[in-house]
Structure formats: C-alpha cells, structure tokens
Amino acid sequence: MTKRASQAKRPNLDSVTTINQDGSRFFLHPSDVSGRYVAARRFAAILLIAVYAGLPWIRINGQPAVFLDLFSRRFHLFGITFAAQEIWLAFFFITGLAFLLFFTTALFGRLWCGWACPQTVFLEHVYRRVERWIEGDAPARRRLDAAPVSGTKVFKRVLKHGVFILVSGAIAHLFLAYFVSIPQLYAWMTASPREQFGAFSFMAVSTGILYFNFAWFREQLCIVICPYGRLQSALIDEHTVNVAYDERRGEPRGKLGTEGAGDCIDCNRCVQVCPTGIDIRQGLQLECVACTACIDACDAVMDKVGRPRGLIRYASEQALEGKPTRLLRTRTVVYGLFMLAGIAVMLFSFSRVQPFEATVSRMTGQPYFLTEEVVRNQLQIRLVNKRNETAAFRVFLEDAPPGMQLAGWGEAMQLEPYEERTRPFILVQPREQYTGRARLDIVVESEDGRNRLRRRAEFVGPDPRVFQ
Amino acid sequence: MSSPDKNRQDRDDIPPGATLREHVYDGIEEYDQRLPNWWLWTLYITIIFSALYWIVWYTFRAVPSDEERVTAAMQEIEARRFAMVGEIDDETLWAMSNNPNVIASGRAVYRDQCAFCHGDDLGGGMGGGLPLDDGIWKWGHAPVDIYSVVRDGSPDPTKGMQAWERELGPRRVAEVTAYILSYHDSDSMETAPDSPGRASER
C-alpha cells in the first residue's frame, strides 16, 4: 500500500481505521479545524490544565489544596485532613462520581471524553498544538512522514519529541506533587538522582509512559484500552444526545448542484478532522470521543455553501427522526437517583468526620487487677489530632458504674498538629461498689466542646461473689 | 445467510482485503482481522518478562524474597536492641541521670505513661503503682533492676506493671529510668533495705 493510497483510506464499520490490515498502525493527521465548539473546548481545556497545575501550589489551612500524603497516610483535601482510617469515605466519593458519569452519559453521551478527559485535553490542546506548530498542517505532516531523512526532518523531529518529553516530564512532576507536595518534590528535583533513586525512576518511568502515550499511542488508548467507551452502549438509548449526522437532511450526498441531492456535499471534511479516524456519517461508533471537531468542520462548510448549520450536531436518534427528545426517562431517573444517593451519603459522612480520632484498647497483661481496696482495669487510649493546629482534649466517663474513677485525666491533653499519642487509661472501682462486669462510655471531647467521640469500653473483674 | 461456500471471500458485502473465518454459526460469520502489532508486542514482551522473572526469582533466587527481607529487617532490629541493652549498666544509668537532656525526655515519657499509676511526683498514685521516691525498691535497688522492671514489666504479673519496651523502645526505657534515678543518689540506693520482692523470692 503506497502512502498516497493510505491517505485516501476510507473509514468503514468493519475495521478500525487506525490499524492496517497487516496489524501495523495507521498514523492519523487530523486537519486543522476552528469554530465555536473548538474554541469552547480549548477554553475548558486551559481551565482544566490550570486547575491541575495549580492545586498543589494553593495552600489552604497550611496544606496544599490537594495533598494525598502517602508517606504519613494523611489526605489533605481543600483544608480538611483525612486519616487513613477514613479511607472508607472514598467509596461514596467514587460511586457518586461513577453515577454522575452514568447520568451525564445517559443524557448527553460522551461529554467526558470530548471535553474533560486528560487524554483528550493533553492530546488535543497541548501535544497536537506542538506538532502543528513544529511540523505544519495535516498535508505538511503527511509529506514529512513520507519524506526521506534530511537535515530539516531530523531537526523537526528532534525538536518535536524534545518538547513532548519536556511536557510529559512536567505533567509527571505535577502528578507526583499531589502525593509528596511541592517542597518535597523540589528537594528531590535538586538532589542527585543517585540519592533519590526511587523517586527518580518513578519520574523517569511515568514521563516515559506519558511520552509514549501522547506521542505515539494516542487514540489507541480510547479505542482499545479505555473501558468507558465500551460501556457507553449499555448507558445510552435513542434519547441520548450525541454528536450525530442528520441522515434525513444530508442524504443522498451529492456535489453542489446535483439534482435531488441532500445537504451533504460529500466534501469529506468531517472525516479529515476526526482524531479517531471515523466517518461520523456512518452513525455512532465506539471510536467516537464526541470531540465535536466534525460539527465545527461541517458548520464551516455549510456556511460557505449557504446552507443552514447543524448537518452534524448534538442530537439524539429521536431528534434525527423528527421526534421529541425526552430528558426524563426511566434510565435517567434511576441513574439520577443513584447519583443523588451517592452524593447525599458522601456529604453526610464527610460532614460527620471528626477533627480527631480516638481508639481504646487494653494494655498488655492481665485483663484486671485486684488490690485490697479496688478492682483495676488498665486500658490505653490512642488519640490522633487530624488538624494542622494544636488541639486539647478532655476525656471523661459516662454511664460509669458507681464509684468508678479515672486516674490522671484531670486536665485536658494537648496534641501538636497531626500528632498521635497513646496514653494509659486506668479505671478503678472500690470493691464494695463492684457488682460485676459493666459497660461504660469513654467520651473524648475537644476543649471547645464542639466535637466529641464516644467509645464503648468494658470494665471487667472477677465474679462479685468472691468479695463476700 | 447461506451456508459457507468457496467464494465467500469474493462477496461484495465485505470490505476489500478482509477475510472471513471458516465457520458460520447460526448465520453469524466472523472476520479474521489481525490484532494490532503493538498489542502482539505487548504479549511477546510479557512472555519474555515472565521467563526472565521465573529464572531470576525461582531458578537463581537472585532477588531476596519478601520473607527473607522481613527476617533480615527483624534481625537488624533485634541486633540494635541487644546493642542498646548491652550498653546499659549501673554506671551509664547514673551518668544519664545527671544529663539534663535525658532527664527532660525521661520526664516527658513519665508524664505521659507512668504518672497515672505512680503519681505526678513519683509519690504513688491512684492507679495503684508503687511510690518511687520512698527508697524502698521491691524488685531490687540497683539501677539495672529498675531498668528491667520498666523494660520487661513487674516479675509479679498480678500487679499490673506491663512490659514497656515494645511501646517505648529501649532508648526511652533507659531515659525514664534515668529520670527516676535523678530523684535519688547512688549512696542511699546502695544502702537501701533489701528488697522485699527479692527477699520473698529467695
């Protein structure tokens, strides 16, 4: 197959355009496209990249806005600190997000892929822009691919891949900053790789993976690896709004002036601009990431030939058949309810997170001790201060059996930021008031009285009849 | 759909270059498309990796297993602990009890862990601990005796003094012992009455 023939490759529904018959890769060079959706998507992408790059730098309550501190197992999210013990909250967060994705997919198709997925955001708005800037437009890039090795070609390729590696390195460094924070990252960056071999190799490997993905792998990730694209057929129905070609209006295709032809002039612009190499006129396909490039391309052509825009547009199958699109349907209601349930439980459980944690356990040795006067239980209490400020806690008993006393907890206990401390917790009860095992509540209260935790404990001892 | 025939590949409803598999089940036919080469290469690399992995891990055992690494780490901890304990004798404990830094950290440990039973000023407390300021040493009046009671707990398990080494580590056990010793001097300790606990043991 010659280069010229491969350029003319026409997408079909039976095979993947980007994989040739012999299994080799067909490298796409989507044409330039501009229009309102491209502009809006570029704006969204810049915003998302700014958020991604900015979050580790912004400090809230003395910690980065997002800092998943794996080393000390403290997770700082927008000024709230979670301990490893609260990882169960992530369940509600993740299921809430998943149903949010289901919900939006049922309503509007793969909005996520086209507008917000990092693969699309970085590929379309960073890497492809660099490629366009260095190697020129689509025909120029194809010519360069076909050209024999020359000084210019080597220069352009080295420059392009050099920039790609730099950008990949930046993305990887920012990613690591979410887990180790900027100061630690900077300390590693300025140290010799030999001293920070683990961090250095993590960085080298992740930069390599990102570079490979964005320089070469590209749409293969969306088509072959990403499960979400495959799930969509289970999530959408005929009312789902997708990027779609209006067959009733467009067919039969014909050049301008053809008798009886539809609005599609078969200019093939929608195919040329597609970053996954499909022909949207063949209907919704799993390769489509709903990037809207074909909408803008077609609208520009329609403007030129004086026909109304929207031959390719956001529309549901129902709308294309001239029937109304319903937003409220069993599917969206069920997904919406699941989403609301997830969000509600998430908000509820997040709001109940305490700024400290307390665990009561028994000290080693016998379960209880007897002296001439008292029965004694030796417990210990572990307090964790989860906030970035010194905090004091009172500990006292509730529903305690008669005469029971707590040794040594008269004054509030001070904990430094993020400090974790274990202290003995000695319970004594006079023999004459002892009536057997008893349950009691150990209450830990912050000094301002706003937050309190209650821990159930058991006071054990011998059968009370031995004292008679 | 018709049964398989020799000319299936020449039909015009399949794209040029595509081939069909031999079989037809319930009228369903299947393309014989090649997998992407990058996919096949991923497979080949995993096969090579698994062979290398097998050789390195199981044939030559070139990399220590997790179990061996844990054992080695535990042995190192034990060795350090013994090294620490080996340095402890009466003289070092007395020397430590004159070092203000050691006393300060020993006091912090005492406040946190000991005061509940033994009292804020070593005078004994409500938690049931013996007083430590009265010159009576139940389990021996040498500094190393006190050190081993803190480290290993009371020889009498019905009394409630637990072994603290696991929780505090050998350094802080020594520091808190030095803190207790700072309330005493070597002359009066040496002439302390024979320990009742030791006496009953004999």
CATH superfamily of the domain at 66-201 in chain B: Cytochrome c-like domain
The total of beta strands of chain A comes to: 16
Q: Helix fraction of chain B?
A: 40-55%
Shape field of chain B? rod-shaped
Largest sheet of chain A at a glance? 5 strands, antiparallel
| Fraction in beta strands of chain B | under 5%
Features of the shown structure:
heterodimer; A: 468 residues; Immunoglobulin-like; 2 domains; 5-stranded antiparallel sheet; 16 helices; B: 202 residues; mainly alpha; two-stranded antiparallel sheet; rod-shaped; disordered N terminus
What do these coordinates show?
The model of chain A is unreliable at 1-6 (pLDDT under 50). Chain A contains 16 helices and 16 strands. The radius of gyration of chain A is 32 Å and the shape is elongated. Chain A has helices at residues 3-7, 36-54, 89-108, 111-116, 118-135, 138-146, 151-180, 182-190, 197-217, 219-225, 227-235, 247-250, 269-272, 293-305, 317-320, 330-351, and strands at residues 59-60, 63-64, 66-69, 74-77, 80-83, 242-245, 312-315, 356-362, 369-370, 374-385, 391-398, 405-407, 413-415, 420-430, 438-446, 452-459. With 468 residues, chain A is an alpha+beta fold. Chain A has 2 domains: 3-234, no CATH class; 356-467, Immunoglobulins (Immunoglobulin-like). In chain B, helix 3 (90-96) crosses helix 6 (165-181). Chain B has a two-stranded antiparallel ribbon. With 202 residues, chain B is mainly alpha-helical. In chain B, a hairpin with a 2-residue loop joins strand 1 and strand 2. The N and C termini of chain B lie far apart (102 Å).
